[in-house]
Amino acid sequence: MKSINTLKKVSLATFLTFVLSFSSVFAQNDTMYIMKSGAIVGQYNVNTEVDSVIFYKPTLEGNNPNITYGSITDIDGNTYKTVTIGTQTWMAENLKVTKYNDGIAIPNVTDNTAWRELTTGALCDYDNTPSNSETYGKLYNWHAVNTGKLCPTGWHVPSDAEWTELTDYLGGTSDAGGKLKETGTTHWNSPNTGATNETGFTALPGGYRYSSGTFRYVGDYGLWWSATESNASNAWSRSVGYSYSYVGRVSRDKELGFSVRCLRD
């Protein structure tokens, strides 16, 4: 692992020329982290056996540089930032795992009719486009949440009461959304009302999948499951939106595809 501190903005071509001039420094499969003011703003995975090809992966621009983040790795090898808010430690990114923590694959259901008829756990990419999950994470139905095996060992999908503990700590639901949302309009649609991300939670507008199978509202809304049923057909969820700063609490159909954040046990 290498790091380069840089504050100067240059073109990608110029930067790659700079990196390749130091190709002898890197070993096969090294990861080089790009730092700005002490924060990681991007990473380059170096493959020296294929003409020094460098694969770029930007980090989320809205992470709070004043927050000290931890990390957790899922069974697929995905690593997520974590953040402590009050007495709780949360993932600071949406889950994108494709297996339960016992190694069993979670079905990726792309067909709308099949999604509508599910009574067991499943996931999907927004718009069935895998690149969307790199930013926004996967969408999961509540049946996947209800297995109790969706999060890494030692973590769990938060209950309705644990979500309430979070918003209570932030002073109540009316302004908590702004404190949780990623700032700016890189991912959120304008005006992204009230967004400060002072918690470091970096809530993203991953949209959702209807029980009919269709996708809506990426850029507008972020919606997350709780692990708590409200009745036989519904479960509690939380939402934040581009045009307001509150956190919504709504009972929704278990067949919907929502984002997931994990909470440390």
Report what the structure shows.
It is a single chain. The chain has 265 residues and is of the alpha+beta class. The protein has two domains: 2-58, no CATH class; 70-264, no CATH class. The chain contains six helices and 16 strands. β5 and β6 form a beta hairpin. The longest helix has 10 residues, at 160-169. The model is unreliable at 1-16, 35-41 and 48-61 (pLDDT under 50).
Short précis:
The protein is of the alpha+beta class and 265 residues long.
Sequence-ordered SSE layout with sheet pairings:
Elements: E1 2-5, H1 12-20, E2 31-36, E3 39-47, E4 53-58, E5 70-73, E6 79-85, E7 88-91, H2 112-116, E8 123-124, H3 130-136, E9 139-140, H4 142-145, E10 155-156, H5 160-169, H6 173-180, E11 208-209, E12 215-216, E13 221-229, E14 234-241, E15 248-253, E16 263-264
Parallel strand pairs: 1-2
Antiparallel strand pairs: 2-3, 3-4, 5-6, 6-7, 8-9, 10-16, 11-12, 13-14, 14-15
Number of helices: 6
The overall pLDDT average reads 85
Secondary-structure element order, N to C = EHEEEEEEHEHEHEHHEEEEEE
| Percent of sequence in beta strands | 25-35%
